[in-house]
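Example 3.2
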Amino acid sequence: MFSKMKIRPFTKNLYDDMPNGYQETIEKGMSAVKYFSSNMSYGKGSKEEQISRLKIEIRKADAIVIGAGAGLSTSAGFTYSGERFEKYFFDFAKKYGIRDMYSGGFYPFPKEEARWAWWARHIYFNRYIDAPKPVYGELLKLVSDKDYFVVTTNVDHQFQRAGFDKKRLFYTQGDYGLFQSVNPNLQKTYDNEEWVMKAMEAQGFVRDEQGVFQVPADGKLLMEIPSELIPKCPDDGSSMTMNLRADNSFVEDKGWHRASAAYSDFVRRHEKLHVLYLELGVGANTPVIIKYPFWQMTLSNENAIYACLNYGEAFCPGEIEKRSICIDGDIGEVLDELMK
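Structure, written as tokens:
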């Protein structure tokens, strides 16, 4: 009996031996909690003085690690409520009582055709168009001649759309432009651009002169896509879902692991140099991925500077106050000042 059994060969992933920058940064973030007291500071000096200091640090730094959160995209015009929501989701708001794009992603739609119509719009207007404001482009101009790396919890692809080098980007939480199968054995992702465009057309959106989908003049849109357009996995026909980190089913594909390893390597190579840890719009939802690790890495490197740009949430631990810059304000407006 045993002679007829086929032994499945062990398949080693290409990334098994790669450093895991994501795990490393989580560990740094968790350990940072032990180091810092509850004594928080809003930085030293006036806002103008801190902007001036940041301008100097950007110029002098050996390397810049950019940590970006949702506040950066909000400053760039990617708001999830208000005018943008009412413009593109007015019908969903009226029928289902949904009040913003974020909560809409969790709504229990009665039909798959309606759920995927929602997601087609959500993906398109937050992934496949340029941000309304040139904040990402201005950020690139500030750091383009520096040795930089970006780690972000944002999933809207705006760094690449603005021209950032994709080899210097690590999207930790996924990408609106990718699907994954619900089958846990398929640890890969699938590009969704072609599907999104078909699903937008099926709802009645029309392209303008720039090729961007807009609500038709008569305002008539379908809130469902045809059943045959419901996305299925091309490998096994299973149902698809978004490649967004919500639980342990999130697929970390080869591209994700390469970016994670690149981030680890960048941090390691610069850990004792004059590094500027530039935190942009990181809130309290996932501080252990960017904020806390930045504090810890600044504390452990006497040559490092921590800078936090955030609207209403710009602060630092007292332990690194002397080497911190905290600027409370709209990120786009601060970047404008830095560009002058």
